[in-house]
Amino acid sequence: MNSRITMGLAALLLLGAVFLGYWGLVLSRQPAPVAEAPAAPAVSVEKTVAIAEDQTRQPVVVLVRDVPPFTALTAADVAVEKLRSAPAGSLSTVEQAVGRTPWRHLSAGTWLSDESFQAGGALARMIRSDERALTVAVDEVIGAAGQLLPGDYVDVLIYLREDASNLQQSAQIAVPALRVLGVGDQYGLTNDGQPASPNLNADEKLKQDQRRIAARTVVLAVPEQLLSRLMLATQVGTLRLAVRSSEEQRLAKYWAGEAQSPAHLDRANSQLFQFTQLAMGSAQRAPSTANAGAAPRPAVEIIRGNQISQQTP
C-alpha cells in the first residue's frame, strides 16, 4: 500500500516537473517587447501663425548702437529686422550699409536709408530744394498763444499803423499757407521721416513742451519766390500768424509729394503791392465841409520817392 502511494506521488511530481520545464521553455522563446517610437511633437497653432507672418515681413537695416558722424559703418553696427511694412527708401541688406559714412550722429534703433548718409543739418533736411527756412520772432499773441506745433500751416498777416506814409491803417495777408518747421527748440520730421529732435524721455518731453509754449521764435518753410515778400513784411509792420484748419490736409499733401503750383505762386506774387501804396490806395478822403459849396479845384499830384500825395493849389 505504501509502495503504491509512493509511486503515485512520484508520478505526480514527474508530471509537474515536465509541465514546469515546458512552461519555462515557452516563456524563454517569447519575443522581447518592441520599444515604441516617440511621438512627433505637435506643431502649435501659434508657431504656425508666427512662421506664416514672418514670411510676409520685410527686412529693414537698423543700427544696434549709436554711431558718431564721419565714422564708417561696420557689420557690428547694424542688424536686419523684419517689419510688417518697410519705411520708404529703407535699406534691406547689411551690405548696403557697411562701409558708408554718415554725416551726422545716428542713434541706436534708427532705420537706415540713402538719406542717412547725406550731408546737411536737421533743418536743411526738413525742406525741399524750392523752399527756404526763415525764422520769425513771435510772442504770446503773434504765436497763437503758444499753441503752434511743427506741421501746422499758418497765414502771415501784416498790420500797418497810420503814420505819415500811410494815411489809413490797413491789414493784409502777406504770405499765405506756410508750413511750421519748428517752434522754439522743438522741430518736426525730416524729409526721410525721422524726428529732427532727439528722442526724449517723458520728463524731457514735458520740459520741451513748456519751452515751446513760451517760445519766442518760429521757423517757417517759405517758397523761394515769396521769401523777399515775407522779409519785407517782417520789417515794415506788425505780424500775426493765423492757423489754418487741418481739414485742408496740406501736410498730408506735402508728404505725398505735392508742391505748390507755379500759378499759385505767381498769383501770390502778383498781389505784392508796395505796402505804403496799398495803405494809401485804401484810404478814403472825407469831403471838406468848408468848401462843400465851392467848385472843385484840380489837384496836383506830387511824387516824392515812393510816396504819392495830392495837393490842391
From TrEMBL:
CDD domains xref list: SAF_CpaB_FlgA_like
Database matches in InterPro entries: Pilus_assmbl_Flp-typ_CpaB, RcpC_dom, SAF
SAF domain sequence ranges: 58-118
SMART domains on file: SAF
Signal peptide region: none
Source species, domain of life: Bacteria
Pfam families: RcpC (PF16976), SAF (PF08666)
NCBIfam families membership: pilus_cpaB (TIGR03177)
Protein's recorded name: Flp pilus assembly protein CpaB
Gene: cpaB
